[in-house]
Predict the 3D structure of the following.
Amino acid sequence: MQANSNTSAPAASTQNTPKLRKFLIPRSQTRSFLIKFTFMTCVGWVVGGLVSIALEKLLDSVSPAFFPDSQMWMNFANYLSSVVFALIFAADQALVMRQYVSGWWWMLATSLGWLLASSVSTAWINYISSIAGSFNETLPPEAVVILGFLSTISYIISGVWLGLCQWLVLRRYTINAWWWNFLPAVAFFFISTLIWLLSLLQNFIPEAYRTSILYWNGQGFTAFILGFIPAIGLCTLKRKQNHKNVIPSSS
């Protein structure tokens, strides 16, 4: 009886020992996380877009006494609507991420990173457009292609700002997460590629519905990619091993 008691003790101790959590997203939760994060990103994209458009139209209809310059008021309205969109977009992702990292920090980092990425890409695209407009004569097709390519590259590279802001949060919880700085740029690359492929199919779409079909398909693909690719990246991140990174073992 004494021998049986001694041999069973290590087994009981092993069963009661908590398991170390290796990945930021536990393997058992990978599928549900992919679905929830992608879905909430799409929801944030749609809701944020609708709210920001409604807010911008509301502000445009107001006659501000303290902004005599209409252009200044339009710039303010555009900026405020962008902030509202970024906050809603980031908040929807944070609802899923709060189980694994600080939801407030993720919301702040994502909204700030999105605003920086949008501002940088818009500034570069406007600069490239001003270069094209500075020519008095019609640009040759080769120059148009080059300028369009430069605009696309500017948009893709701007994703680094979003990745940098999110990395500042993820590095507190994960190891070897330096590559996350470039992951949003990869997502922007796939978005640009799909938008380009859609433009090749526009001649096969009836002209009466062409604009709306291209727009909504582009928005749908954009929202899906912005959720799905980061979700895959999050599932591959390894969590720092400390006293908070354990999960109870199943009995």
